[in-house]
Amino acid sequence: MALVAGLLGVMFALGVVTLVVALRPVAVDEIPERRAEGPPLKDRFENLVLRLALGVSLAVVVGVVTRWPMAALIMGAAGFLAPSLLGGEAQRKAQLDRVEGVAAWAEMLRDTMAGSGGLEQSIIATAGVAPVTIRPEVIRLAARLERERLAPALRVFADELDDPSGDLVVAALLLAADKSPKRLGDLLGRLAHSAREEVNMRLRIDAGRARTRTSVKVITIATVVFAALLVVLGGDYLDAYDTFTGQLVIAVIGACFATSFSWLSRAFKIDTSTRFLRTDGAGS
Question: What is d(CA 279, CA 273) in angstroms, rounded to the nearest whole number?
């Protein structure tokens, strides 16, 4: 009965958290700004709440089933950190799509300038048809050009993109704004080609690591399933873990798993180039 009550309590808590997040009011025409400091505070808070709900749920279930405080603590921490250690594929894909979007927009600017001329007019003309991944930022740049000079607007645009490839394109546009844009089209084409080469390289690296990443997930799931079956069917075999020494052994095992997963998560991470136009929205 205690186990059933604990599970029902956890499911009720998750339902309340999910309902609160789902009912959060959002303006239909809201276009959130993507600044250099990272995701908005509201999104980070929601992410923290969901992580806490997952961690607490696992801790409660494991604690009720095993009566081992160390196992509950380890599984709670694992539930809190699992999205960071085992996830990240969507974030990596979003980064690559963003770089590809910057390359496509640079080519749009090149072709538009070749046909009609002015840099500011070309930016405004491409705002509505810019790649989806960077369209909100380009639309805000076009709107900003109606009341600001080109150079400050471009620097704010670079901060909103928060991408090294975007910095290269913005730097080319800044040079063209200060000097003659005669060879800007050729430069934008070269930058677009370089950005696509970066995307292809990172895709090849990610494909090479996909097999290792899949193996890690399979091993993790198999280990968790085996441990769960052992807890359910082990009987007197697991009595040794009820002692203080047994809890220390569980702590050592958990530390070994945490160290290995932390090392693997760093090994799977691809370090990107450092931005060189970071101005925090400061105009010049």
Answer: 16
